[in-house]
């Protein structure tokens, strides 16, 4: 990529940012296309290259857009034999000093035909007060010049100042209109339009500023990328994992006779319900990114978007089922079954994975958590299967079930028609989790095994799911770890290549030391990033966007 491409890239970058800051592009299209103007990069002192030209200018000068791009803003390609040299110098001086220029000058089209032009060059400043662009507005006044009679010339000598002021005011009005269109100052309301027109026609020069306009939002609107929202999302994520762990455990392991155990977790369950309800309220006041990539701040649009997406799921998950205890509901298992709808909250976790996909450590933690959560769910199902086998009337089946075998090993067998004794809930859960993790990771020791038909069918399903999860989770884990150490590996590879080069070419020790120090210093500055490659990609993207916008 040569110097001209770099100049073009810098200018186009500013131009694209300028165009993307339009408050309503449809409002500006007509006026921009009807105007004869060019935009030049004021931050590149080497000729101030042109980065954009309107269709009207191309039609006026007879040049194609590709022929005008990257040429100097002084428009030397329009100069000819009769062009005033003093005006040429004034244009160059105004560009160097970054001041406004206005005047009547003779230009030449591409075919060589001359035309009189009202030229108005205006600098555009950013929010820091630095001039970043030049706007040059052109108006063909050849017909006006030709129609001037000798009597008019005498009158012009008397009223020259008035006539010149008329021409300049007309040119200024055109350039100011273009400037206000580009800067995004035109609004949809007629009231604001009248205010802008008053600013346009005043004699006092007011250079427009090129800067990103502040988004207008209510103070009660919460930014989706704010620090508070990020912390709140992590709190909701922890609450979701709490629900995903406790709800299946309570459904499978806690029976109707364990009301005291259930009541011990009532406080934490109510706290989670309150968090979910508050989260629903916050989601009605949180911004979001539309499909077009625009951040939406309007409260009505936010409400409609949330109601049509996640509101129903969040509402079901936030239903306060623990209030049933206030009505003396003693069927604990029914309450636990109703709470399983809160697992729908896990669907929101997929949305979080997209957001944190660039953070390898977070993705690695979430993947391992999902794997452990799956093992926990399957342990709950494994216990239910063993419990159903134990409660079967057939003496043969429950004597060979995994719970019966576990009870005998722990010297706490079942007795009294299979309703008394047996291992504790804690021991049964640990054994079930041990079995499911062994099956999911394809490591089985046989001390907890499937004996009945139902247990064997579940074991087969567990092995199949384990093969899929092993490929999915640990495949991603391997890729993430490789990505985390990719820079480290690249550093050592390039260091080895450099040392091999030095050894093959028998370079002296002093030069070898300088080369290694230079490489290490350069790496510490750019961390191995190839700036030329990045600039080339940006160069291609900006060229394509400029072509589309042009």
From TrEMBL:
TM spans (from-to): 220-245, 265-284, 323-341, 362-385, 457-481
Q: Name one GO molecular function term.
A: voltage-gated potassium channel activity
Membrane topology note = Multi-pass membrane protein
Indicate yes or no for the key word Lipid biosynthesis. no
Primary site of residence: membrane
Which GO biological process annotations does it have? regulation of membrane potential
* An example Gene Ontology CC term for this record: plasma membrane
Q: Which residues form the PAC domain?
A: 101-153
Looking at the Swiss-Prot or TrEMBL record, what is one Pfam family this protein matches? Ion_trans
Instruction: From the Swiss-Prot or TrEMBL record, state where the protein is found.
Output: Membrane
Keyword Thylakoid (UniProt)? no
Key words of the record: Glycoprotein, Ion channel, Ion transport, Membrane, Potassium, Potassium channel, Potassium transport, Transmembrane, Transmembrane helix, Transport, Voltage-gated channel
Family matches, as InterPro entries: Ion_trans_dom, K_chnl_volt-dep_EAG/ELK/ERG, K_chnl_volt-dep_ELK, KCNH_animal-type, PAC, PAS, PAS-assoc_C, PAS-like_dom_sf
Provide the catalytic activity annotation: K(+)(in) = K(+)(out)
| Name of the protein this chain belongs to | Potassium voltage-gated channel subfamily H member 8
Q: Which organism is it from?
A: Callithrix jacchus
